[in-house]
C-alpha cells in the first residue's frame, strides 16, 4: 500500500514539472519580473512563484560572453601614475618626437625645475580633466607653454601657465584690469584652457589638430585643412603646412608624455607629486594686503604669489578677488589668524578713481605719494596724462573705512593721453594782422600773444613781421606710437625704445629746446637748410 502511495506522489510531481516546461516564455518573463519586483519593491521577496527554465539546455556561445573592465582597487601611487592611467590620445611617431625626447632628456635640471614647479597645480588640473573625461596628457601641456610658470609672459603678450593672449582671455571670461589678470589665475585659467581645448576638439574631432589650433589659431588650422582638401591631400596634423613652432608643438608634448610614461628609458627622475590636493580655497571677506595675507597664512610671500599669481598689485580686493588659494594645511591657520587680527587695517592700499584728466604730479600730490612711487606702482609711462575715470592704487588713509566697491573692482581701468607741450615758432604777419587776429587764428589768448612779443594787446603788426607764438603740440600722439604711421610735418615724432622712456625726436624744421625742471619743453622751428654747426669745445 505504501508503494502505491509513493508512486502516486511521484506521478503528481512529474505532471507538475511537465506543466512548468510548457509555460510560455512570456509568462516566464512575467513571473521573473514579478519575482524581481518582489525582491526590490513592496512585495515580500519569497512570495513570488518560483521560475523554472524552459526548453532544452544549450551551451553558452562566445557571442553571449562580454569582457568587462576590471576596476582597479588600489589607488594611484602618485600623480604620475594617475596621469599614465588616463592617457587617451593617439601617439605621434616622428623624427621630431625623437629629437624633442633627446632635447629634454639631455636637460635633467630643466626637467627637475619644471616638474617641481608643477607640484602645486597638477592635482587640480588632473581632477578637472578627469571630471570632463578628457585625456590626461593635456595636464602636461603647461610644460610646453610656460614650464608651469604662472607668471610667464611671452613676447606676444600671452600670459600665465596656459599662455592666453589678451583677446582670447576675454573670449573665455578671464578678467584683465588694474587689480588682477585672470590669465594668470590658477583656477580661472585652467577652466578657460580646458573649455578652449574642448571647443577645438569639437571643431576638428582630433586632439592633435586641436592642439595645433591652440597654438596657431583655429582659423589658421581650418584654412590649412581646406587648402589640403582642395589639393586632394590628407588633412592630419602631420600632413598640414604650418609654422615651425606649431610643427614642433605636438612633438614636444609627445616627448614629455613618453618621458612621463617611462622615465627609466630616458634616465629621468620625476619628483614625487602626491595624489592629494595641494591647496584649498579660502573666501576673502575684506580688502587685504598681499604681504599680510601671506603672514596670516604663515607661508612665504613667494609661495603665496605662486598660488595667487593673478593679483599683481600689493592689495587683494575682496569684491574682485572673492577667494584666495592657500596650501592645504595653511588654510585653517589663515582663517584663525585673520579672525584674531587686531593690529590695524587689513589693507593699507585702496583704489582711487581719477575725477578729471591730470598730470602724474597732480595725482601724486592728491594721493599723498611721490610721483616716482605712483608711477612705479601703477605702471604709468612717462610723458603721459592720466585720463579721467582711470583707477589708481593709492595709500589707504586711516579714515577710510569702506573697502573698494564691486563696480570699481570689476571695471577698474587705467587710460592715458599724451601730455601737451608748447612749441615756440614764428609766423609771418600778413596785411592788417594784429595781436587779436593772430590770437583768433591760432586759438590763443590775446594777452599771451602780446606778452610773447612784448607789445600791447591792441598792437598791429607790420606786414612780414615775425610774430612769436607758442602752439600746443602732442609730444607722443597715440595714433603714431607703434602704428608705423608718419607724423604730420611740423609735429614732434616719437621714438619708443624697449624698456626705456619715450623720447621726443625733432621733426623737419623743429628743434626740441630743453626747459628747466618743472616747465614744459619748448620746440623751436628752425629755418630750412639745416641747423647751425656746433662750436667746438676747447
What does this structure look like?
With 538 residues, the protein is α+β, with helices and mostly antiparallel strands. The protein contains 20 helices and 14 strands. The protein has helices at 2-21, 25-40, 79-85, 95-105, 108-117, 122-131, 141-145, 166-171, 186-204, 207-216, 218-231, 244-261, 290-297, 301-307, 330-340, 360-367, 371-378, 406-411, 435-441, 446-452, and strands at residues 279-283, 288-289, 315-316, 323-327, 349-353, 384-386, 391-395, 416-418, 420-428, 466-474, 493-496, 502-505, 510-513, 522-525. A four-stranded mixed beta sheet has the order 10-9-14-13. It has a two-stranded antiparallel sheet with strand order 1-4. α9 (186-204) crosses α10 (207-216) and α10 (207-216) crosses α11 (218-231).
What's the alpha carbon Rg, rounded to whole Å?
Answer: 38 Å
| Tally of DSSP β-strands | 14
End-to-end Cα distance:
154 Å
Sheet having the most strands: 4 strands, mixed
Could you give a quick summary of the protein structure above?
The chain is of the alpha+beta class. Helix content is 39%, strand content 12%. Helix 10 (207-216) packs across helix 11 (218-231).
List keywords for this structure.
20 helices; disordered C terminus; 14 strands; 39% helix; alpha+beta; four-stranded mixed sheet; 12% strand; elongated; single chain; 538 residues
Amino acid at each position: 500500500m505504501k508503494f502505491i502511495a509513493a508512486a502516486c506522489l511521484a506521478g503528481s510531481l512529474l505532471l507538475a514539472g511537465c506543466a512548468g516546461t510548457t509555460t510560455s516564455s512570456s509568462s516566464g518573463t512575467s513571473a521573473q519580473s514579478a519575482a524581481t519586483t518582489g525582491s526590490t519593491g513592496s512585495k515580500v521577496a519569497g512570495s513570488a512563484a518560483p521560475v523554472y527554465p524552459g526548453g532544452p539546455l544549450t551551451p553558452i556561445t562566445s557571442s553571449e560572453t562580454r569582457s568587462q573592465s576590471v576596476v582597479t582597487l588600489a589607488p594611484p601611487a602618485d600623480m604620475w601614475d594617475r596621469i599614465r592611467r588616463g592617457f587617451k590620445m593617439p601617439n605621434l611617431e616622428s623624427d621630431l618626437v625623437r629629437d624633442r625626447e633627446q632635447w629634454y632628456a639631455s636637460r635633467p635640471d630643466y626637467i627637475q625645475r619644471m616638474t617641481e614647479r608643477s607640484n602645486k597645480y597638477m592635482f587640480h588640473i588632473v581632477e578637472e580633466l578627469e571630471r570632463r573625461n578628457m585625456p590626461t596628457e593635456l595636464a602636461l601641456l603647461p610644460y610646453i607653454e610656460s614650464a608651469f610658470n604662472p607668471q610667464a609672459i611671452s613676447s606676444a603678450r600671452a600670459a600665465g601657465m596656459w599662455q592666453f593672449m589678451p583677446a582670447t582671455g576675454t573670449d573665455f571670461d578671464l578678467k584683465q584690469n588694474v587689480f588682477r589678470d585672470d590669465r594668470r589665475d590658477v583656477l580661472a585659467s585652467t577652466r578657460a584652457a580646458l573649455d578652449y581645448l574642448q571647443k577645438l576638439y569639437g571643431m576638428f574631432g582630433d586632439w592633435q589638430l586641436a592642439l595645433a589650433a591652440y597654438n596657431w589659431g583655429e582659423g589658421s588650422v581650418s584654412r590649412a585643412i581646406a587648402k589640403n582638401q582642395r589639393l586632394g591631400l590628407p588633412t592630419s596634423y602631420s600632413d598640414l603646412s604650418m609654422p615651425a613652432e606649431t610643427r614642433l608643438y605636438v612633438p614636444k608634448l609627445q616627448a614629455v608624455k613618453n618621458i612621463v610614461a617611462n622615465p627609466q628609458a630616458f634616465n629621468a627622475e620625476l619628483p614625487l607629486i602626491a595624489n592629494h590636493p595641494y591647496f584649498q580655497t579660502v573666501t576673502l571677506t575684506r580688502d587685504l594686503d598681499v604681504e599680510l595675507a601671506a603672514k596670516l597664512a604663515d607661508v612665504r610671500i613667494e609661495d603665496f604669489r605662486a598660488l595667487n599669481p593673478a593679483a599683481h598689485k600689493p592689495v587683494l580686493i575682496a569684491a574682485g578677488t572673492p577667494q584666495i588659494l592657500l596650501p592645504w594645511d595653511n588654510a585653517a591657520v589663515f582663517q584663525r589668524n585673520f579672525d584674531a587680527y587686531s593690529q590695524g587695517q587689513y589693507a593699507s592700499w585702496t583704489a582711487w578713481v581719477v575725477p578729471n584728466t591730470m598730470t602724474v604730479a597732480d595725482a601724486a600730490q592728491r594721493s599723498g605719494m611721490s610721483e616716482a612711487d605712483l608711477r612705479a606702482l601703477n605702471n604709468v609711462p612717462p610723458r603721459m596724462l592720466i585720463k579721467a575715470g582711470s583707477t589708481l592704487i593709492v595709500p589707504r588713509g586711516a579714515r577710510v573705512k569702506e573697502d573698494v566697491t564691486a563696480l570699481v573692482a570689476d571695471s577698474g581701468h587705467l587710460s592715458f593721453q599724451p601730455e601737451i607741450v608748447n612749441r615756440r615758432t614764428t609766423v609771418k604777419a600778413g596785411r592788417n594782422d594784429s595781436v587779436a587776429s593772430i590770437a583768433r587764428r591760432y586759438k590763443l589768448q590775446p594777452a599771451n600773444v602780446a606778452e610773447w612779443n612784448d607789445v600791447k594787446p591792441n598792437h598791429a603788426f607790420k606786414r612780414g613781421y615775425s610774430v612769436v607764438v607758442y602752439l600746443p603740440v602732442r609730444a607722443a600722439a597715440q595714433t603714431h606710437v607703434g602704428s608705423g604711421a608718419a607724423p604730420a610735418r611740423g609735429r614732434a615724432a616719437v621714438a619708443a625704445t624697449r624698456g626705456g622712456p619715450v623720447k621726443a625726436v625733432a621733426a623737419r624744421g623743429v628743434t626740441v629746446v630743453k626747459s628747466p625742471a618743472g616747465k614744459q619743453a619748448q620746440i623751436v622751428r628752425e629755418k630750412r637748410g639745416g641747423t647751425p654747426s656746433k662750436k667746438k669745445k676747447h
